[in-house]
Amino acid sequence: MSRLRRTLNRWADTNDQHARDLRKTYAAPDCATIAAAPDRERVHLRGTLRTVTLRPRGGVPALEAELFDGSGVLTVVWLGRRQIAGIVPGRSVDVQGRIGTHDGVRTIYNPRYELLP
Predict the structure, then answer these.
(1) pLDDT in tens, the chain (117 residues)
(2) To the nearest 10°, the Cα dihedral for 91, 88, 66, 30?
(3) Rounded to two decimals, what is the model's pTM?
(4) pLDDT score of 64
(5) What is the DSSP string of 51-115?
(6) Residues ≥6 apart with Cβ < 8 Å to 101
(7) For residues 18-31, b (16+ Cβ closer than 10 Å) or e, as one string?
(8) Which residues contact 73 (CB under 8 A, 6 or more apart)?
(9) CA–CA gap between residue 40 and residue 33 (Å, rounded)
């Protein structure tokens, strides 16, 4: 396969294009990308919720969501919550908190959040 064809195929890939669009949409001077956000430091991130599920942790209800910003994926967990109005798949959110790693998955627990239009 020629180099030009590979380049065109890569640019035509809809998943890659979607990720590029999300990176442009959520780019802001005060926000980090998920891929570049440091662990165990206060971070400000924006992205789209891919999934939202109820997963009890240690007998306590926990609302768990997967946040995607085009650069990477992060798990966001609200402990003690069964649901939060507006926290649904496809919704854009702005979250602030500290990223930790739990079972090899980057996670923010009980972040401050704002629903974006």
Answers:
(1) 578 777 666 655 556 766 677 667 766 778 899 999 999 999 999 999 999 999 988 889 999 999 999 889 999 999 999 999 999 999 999 999 999 998 999 999 999 999 998
(2) 40
(3) 0.79
(4) 96
(5) EEEE--BTTB-EEEEEEE-SS-EEEEEEET-S--TT--TT-EEEEEEEEEEETTEEEEES-EEEE
(6) 39, 107
(7) ebeebeeebeeeeb
(8) 34, 50, 66, 67
(9) 15
Question: Which residues does 91 contact at the CB level (< 8 Å), separation at least 6?
Answer: 48, 49, 115, 116
Residues written for the chain: 117
